[in-house]
Design brief:
This protein is an alpha+beta fold. Helices cover 28% and strands 37% of the residues. It has 3 helices and 6 strands; from the N terminus they run ααββαββββ. It has a 6-stranded mixed sheet with strand order 2-1-6-5-4-3. A hairpin with a 5-residue loop joins β1 and β2. The mean pLDDT is 92.
Length: 139
């Protein structure tokens, strides 16, 4: 199999688009907007939550999100930072993210997270396709 590489300018533009999706993910969680959150996933996406719950398809992801997101951010928040993007193909990327959970005043709480999002670009939009959210346990 031959891998097609992106030129540096195109790669930087694609990474910026990917970062915007992660920013929308952060925004939707901070503001408890389940519809916005769910819209970031491809219809047949898979997602394993930070507690190991496996969800298959946007409908199942939506049902779970509508159950847990409202009220989840009343005492805390989360921020997400893209730390690495690996282009598997020009339209498929593995995206490593650092998630930090904190009080509304900005004090870190609990363990950090280290999600891995496989994303695909379809119809000009990057979508979440296969996601694993993993808690980082303190040493």
């Amino acid at each position: 199999m031959e891998t097609t590489f992106l030129d540096p300018q195109t790669q930087e533009a694609e990474i910026e688009e990917i970062k915007q999706v992660i920013a929308r993910l952060e925004h939707s969680q901070q503001n408890e907007l389940p519809e916005e959150f769910v819209s970031l996933f491809r219809a047949d996406a898979i997602w394993t939550t930070g507690h190991g719950k496996a969800l298959t398809g946007r409908d199942e992801i939506s049902a779970f999100t509508h159950q847990v997101l409202p009220g989840a951010m009343k005492d805390s928040t989360a921020t997400y930072e893209v730390v690495h993007v690996l282009f598997i193909r020009p339209d498929v990327a593995a995206v490593k993210v650092h998630a930090q959970y904190s009080t509304l005043e900005g004090q870190p709480i609990g363990n950090a997270g280290t999600p891995l999002y496989v994303m695909a670009k379809e119809d000009g939009q990057w979508r979440l396709v296969a996601c694993q959210n993993t808690e980082v346990l303190a040493p």
